[in-house]
Amino acid sequence: MAANFQQLPTSLREDQTTGVAVIIIISLALYNAIELSVLIPFSFKTFRSLYFWTLLVSSTLGLIPTSLGTSF
Fold it and tell me: Transmembrane region positions (predicted)?
């Protein structure tokens, strides 16, 4: 890799910028999914309701695989 970022060709700099942006967006999605997985059980008194399980399943089985699936 080049020693200086300005020495890289324009197309390589754009690819690197796009890659960094994708990594940042995926990491934000994963952070939000993990945060929801932790906060949802603490916010409900009982775990028998359909609303609780819908939120928990959608945050863990919906957000995490979707965000990781786009990265590969």
Answer: 20-43, 50-68
